[in-house]
Write a structure and sequence with these properties.
2 domains, Cobalt-precorrin-4 Transmethylase, domain 1, about 250 residues, five-stranded mixed beta sheet, alpha/beta
Length: about 250
Amino acid sequence: MLCLVGLGLFDERDISLRGLDVLRGSDFVYAEFYTNFSHADLSRLEGLCGKKVILLERSDLEEHPEENVLKYAVDKKVCLLVSGDPMVATTHSDLVLRARKKGISVSFVHASSVFSAVAETGLQIYKFGKTTTIAYPEGSYFPMSPYDVLKQNKDAGLHTLCLLDVKAGEGKYMSVSEAVELILRMEESKKQDVFTKDSLCVGVARLGGDLKIKAGKASEIAKTDFGKPPHILIIPGKMHYMEEEFLKFFSD
């Protein structure tokens, strides 16, 4: 049996009582933090649940989960802890499919997620369009798909939520400033007037914890220090007057 348990947005205190019950009743407890940065203290979590928490790398789950999580879930109770909500990352969808193909039963304990917490900005959830991820360029590889998503959403008057790249193995977590600069580079290449230095942006850091939100022109946001990760970037579309009023609180 495999259960994916969400740790929530910030640290180990965001886990639900149901999640703790699952941990305490598990034979093996694993955790992964490569899909998103977490401020969770694993030693404190181990004290709460009375179990050893085994931290996995990206390759452990994406390349050979049969050697860890799925190996024991065939006849034991196995828990996988993930930052945020369990089924947001496609990695977890792949793991669930592999488990079910092996006849392993799978359950979930959901938790707070960026996809609802962004409402703290005052931007209305139902007015968000397609989400995109800003990735670090590597060599000659410079993914432009976020620009296309932004254009699509902008044309429809919708807000764009940009998730930022995580390279946990290298200790790299993209900042709001880096994301803004990358989209400006995309604009230089595409030249479709989708995103400029005067575009309104909302930078957000550490949802669910010591929160920082800053709204302003891209040129201003790029110079703002948002502190520790995780960060996200929002590019608003057409706004209701209440949304505009809300963002004024974060523009000083």
